[in-house]
Amino acid sequence: MIDFLNIKKNFPIFQKQPDLVYLDSTATSLKPKIVINKIKEYYEEYSANVFRGIYPMSEKATIEFEETREIVSKFINANKSEEIVFTRNATESLNLLAYSLGRKIVEPGDEIVTTIMEHHSNFVPWQVLAGEVGAIFKVIDIDEEGYLEFRIQNSELLKQIITKKTKILALTYVSNMLGTINPIKEIISEFKRINPKIIVIVDAAQAVPHLKIDVHDLGADFIVFSSHKMLGPTAVGVLWGKERLLKEMYPFMYGGDMIDEVYIDRTTYKNPPHKFEAGTPAIGEIIALKEAVKFLDKIGMDNIQIHEKKITDFAINRLTNTFGQSIKIYGPKNIEDRGGIMSFTFDKFHPHDIAQILADDGICVRAGHHCAMPLHTRLNVPATVRASFYLYNDERDVNKLIEGLKKVKEILK
Ligand SMILES: Cc1ncc(COP(=O)(O)O)c(C=O)c1O
């Protein structure tokens, strides 16, 4: 039995700010002490570059660095650690795919399919690619509740979305605004049945930190996520891809570490993942990511998901019971279909004013379009307030949010 009420003890920020109500883990998560200590260990004890030196400090750094790759690979059940590429963030992983894969396989008249609920990082790179190449950019809509528009069984609609010309399907696992958990496995299997050649890219930035992910089971070709949203350091992104596809792709950036041999008239490249890791990476941060993964693993992703579901359910019920019609919460009504993300509007109060008043009481939420402007336009709302929950949140945080919102009402009415 995991004692979620005591988990805050592992996060030094709560010792410095005991009253902190952090409800913005969708933007970035807090970091446990073991992660912070690991970065410190690298900088204090073996802060050499990786792959270059034959002296002990560099060898130690390289071993620690590659160990993270191995641990991340096991965490998502990849075939081998060579399928894990380190980038700067999920955004860079997606841009890498748009350049190195997209510009290789997408031709004029081909189709790239994405959804209206994407974060800009999984929308703009594909929109730009389609514009450059002369491909068709298709966007799957949502229904009124915030589910992707098609039901898997509606094969007619599916056939309009996925055709023989579809080259890439890029979609999110969990919406960073609606909280919707898309039935990714079923979507991939249905879409690949219509066109087995499509390449499926899953933006798992809001999934890997919160759900158990098994890339084998999922059936995707690529998934991307960020270290900083899963208790790890900033400046580290992950791209997982099938080895065969990674080998076929163009390099992303050229320079040190990604080459095999360089001559005046030609250059050859290393195999993946190094082919995609030009220049010095965020060594200490990548080394420390493994501590975050071990921490999550120890608690258990299933336990984390159950815990988040419980708080989200509690929060939705409390908000609705306390404020009734004044609160509009977006996303699926069935708690089983959503992650720990709750975006809402409150009366006619401006989301930024709400966030500001809450901030004055140490309650951290997000206000704005959350890098999902097409979705907000679709929902006909310029901005929302977003509260998001992670393993260190509990009912006490929700109660403080409710008190904060009562104050908002007092001040802005
Ligand atoms: C669903 C989703 N995709 C991509 C990103 C981009 O992540 P990063 O800023 O780490 O690149 C985010 C960030 O909030 C996100 O929520």
Secondary-structure topology with pairs:
Elements: H1 12-16, E1 21-22, H2 33-45, H3 56-75, E2 84-87, H4 90-105, E3 111-115, H5 124-133, E4 136-140, H6 155-161, E5 166-172, H7 184-194, E6 199-203, H8 215-218, E7 222-226, E8 237-241, H9 243-248, E9 259-262, E10 267-269, H10 283-299, H11 301-323, E11 327-329, E12 341-346, H12 351-360, E13 363-364, E14 366-368, H13 373-379, E15 384-388, H14 395-412
Parallel strand pairs: 1-13, 3-4, 3-5, 5-6, 6-7
Antiparallel strand pairs: 2-8, 7-8, 9-10, 11-12, 12-15, 14-15
Helix pairs in contact: 2-10, 3-10, 4-5, 11-14, 12-14
The structure holds pyridoxal-5'-phosphate (PLP).
Residues 26-27, 89-91, 119, 121-122, 172, 176, 203, 205-206, 226 line the site of pyridoxal-5'-phosphate.
Keyphrases for this structure?
2 domains; 4-stranded antiparallel sheet; Aspartate Aminotransferase, domain 1; binds pyridoxal-5'-phosphate; Aspartate Aminotransferase, domain 2; 15% strand; alpha/beta; 14 helices; 7-stranded mixed sheet; 413 residues
Walk me through this protein's architecture.
This protein is α/β, with parallel strands linked by helices and 413 residues long. The protein folds into two domains: 4-25 and 300-412, Aspartate Aminotransferase, domain 1; 38-297, Type I PLP-dependent aspartate aminotransferase-like (Major domain) (Aspartate Aminotransferase, domain 2), CATH 3.40.640. The protein is 40% helix and 15% strand. The protein contains 14 helices and 15 strands. Strand 5, helix 7 (184-194) and strand 6 form a beta-alpha-beta unit. The N and C termini lie far apart (44 Å). The structure holds pyridoxal-5'-phosphate.
